[in-house]
Specification:
Strand content of chain A: under 5%
CATH topology of chain B: Arp2/3 complex 21 kDa subunit ARPC3
Protein name (chain A): Energy-coupling factor transporter transmembrane component T
Helix content of chain A: over 70%
Helix content of chain B: 55-70%
Structural class of chain A: mainly alpha
Order of helices and strands of chain A: HHHHHHHH
Membrane topology (chain A): Multi-pass membrane protein
Radius of gyration of chain B: 16 Å
Number of helices of chain A: 8
InterPro entries (chain A): ABC/ECF_trnsptr_transmembrane (IPR003339)
Transmembrane segments (chain A): 22-55, 67-85, 97-120, 174-191
Shape of chain A: extended
Largest interface: A-B, 69 and 58 residues
Keywords (chain A): Membrane, Transmembrane, Transmembrane helix
Oligomer: heterodimer
Number of helices of chain B: 8
């Protein structure tokens, strides 16, 4: 899938089962919040960067991009604490944030979408007791991925049809005139897809 | 759950993702841009109802978590679930549920005003009630400090709530998905 944030590679990190990586991420998250000291947060940060760059051989710009997204938060937290409490708390909180975000980015970049969906299905297995079929989750994910371009395509079609009829509406009314037929159209589409899947035996799967 | 309901759920997860493709309005000095995605949250609840709206946004979060860049600005992956603004993300399924519950309760006298009540309480109230305490816990700041930073989003959210209410009423007339209460169905 070209859309995904996954970066293929042969590293041991890539080969580690998705469930193990998610568990490691969870443990890291708990540790940095239970022991909120700078050495722990900084240690986690260094460890994560080493695993990401050296072991998994991820491109550096991928990690830089992730840091840039949360940089504003990190700076805001640092400044707030420097003024309201003390610099050390601010530094710990900011480093903790960057470490966690990078750890999550490493897991995302080294794990296939299909592997993660499989973990989600496995985690939902106990829900079988209350009548949830875990296999339906994979089906729902697949349908959602297919619907994204379909929604865009239907929107284009309606816009073109309206342009062909001439006239020009501006402002909020134009939005309603586009979105209401779009919603009705895609709701009908979803209805048809559901029936088609049932006709092919999806309901018994 | 019928396959048709599953398709509706997938549709609104996809719709929320598609809304993320619309250009976001960046707010100066704020790490979270104003996006159209919470419109998807309100619409999922208002069109599908509480249960399916909740599941649609839960599915959307699964899409984000498994590493698809479906959040506005092409963001996605597990990182967004551990940042300070993750509370807003977690609030979305609950927000869709509350919006849907209110729309279901008001179904028989749904107009733009009553629908607006649902989208404001569910789509704005719930989102802030979960998102703001999350920031203050995460960043070790006071509730007031976290709330002040979030105030810039209120005008944009109000516009989205009005749009969602208008759309919900129009869709209810054209293609109602929420089933009518049984009492109403009995009388032809």
């Amino acid at each position: 899938m070209t859309l995904a944030l996954y970066v293929p590679g042969p590293s041991p990190v890539h080969r580690t089962p998705a469930g193990v990586k998610l568990l490691a991420l969870l443990v890291l998250g708990v540790v940095v919040f239970v022991v909120p000291t700078l050495p722990v947060a900084a240690g986690v940060l260094v460890g994560v960067v080493l695993v990401g760059l050296v072991v998994a051989r991820l491109p550096g710009r991928l990690l830089v991009r992730q840091v840039r997204v949360v940089a504003v938060w990190a700076v805001a937290i640092l400044v707030f604490h420097a003024l309201a409490t003390d610099l050390l708390t601010g530094l710990t909180t900011a480093v903790r944030l960057v470490a966690l975000v990078l750890a999550a980015a490493v897991v995302t970049a080294t794990t296939r979408v299909t592997a993660l969906v499989a973990v989600v299905e496995r985690l939902c297995a106990p829900l079988r007791l209350v009548g949830v079929r875990p296999a339906r989750i994979g089906l729902a994910v697949a349908m959602a991925l297919r619907f994204v371009p379909l929604v865009a395509e239907r929107a284009d079609r309606i816009r073109e049809a309206q342009a062909a009829r001439g006239g020009r509406v501006r402002g909020p009314r134009a939005l309603v005139l586009l979105v209401v037929p779009l919603l009705v159209s895609v709701l009908q589409l979803a209805h048809t897809v559901g029936e088609a899947l049932d006709a092919r035996g999806a309901d018994t799967a | 759950m019928k396959t048709r309901d599953l398709a509706y759920v997938a549709l609104f997860a996809a719709l929320t993702a598609a809304l993320g493709l619309l250009p976001a309005i960046p707010v100066a000095a704020l790490p979270v841009p104003i996006t159209a995605q919470t419109l998807g949250v309100m619409l999922a609840g208002a069109v599908l109802g509480a249960k399916r709206g909740f599941l649609a946004l839960l599915l959307f979060l699964v899409l984000v978590a498994v590493g698809l860049p479906v959040l506005s600005g092409g963001r996605g992956g597990l990182s967004v679930f551990v940042g300070p603004s993750a509370g807003f993300l977690y609030s979305w399924p609950v927000a869709a549920f509350v919006t849907g519950l209110l729309v279901e309760l008001l179904w028989r006298r749904l107009n733009v005003a009553t629908a607006l009540l649902a989208t404001v309480v569910g789509g704005i109230g719930v989102v802030y009630a979960i998102g703001i305490p999350f920031i203050s816990l995460y960043a070790d700041t006071s509730l007031a400090a976290a709330a002040t930073g979030s105030l810039v989003f209120v005008p944009g959210d109000l516009v989205k709530a009005v749009v969602a209410a208008v759309l919900a009423v129009a869709v209810r007339r054209a293609y109602p998905v929420i089933e009518r209460p049984r009492r109403a169905a009995a009388t032809p």
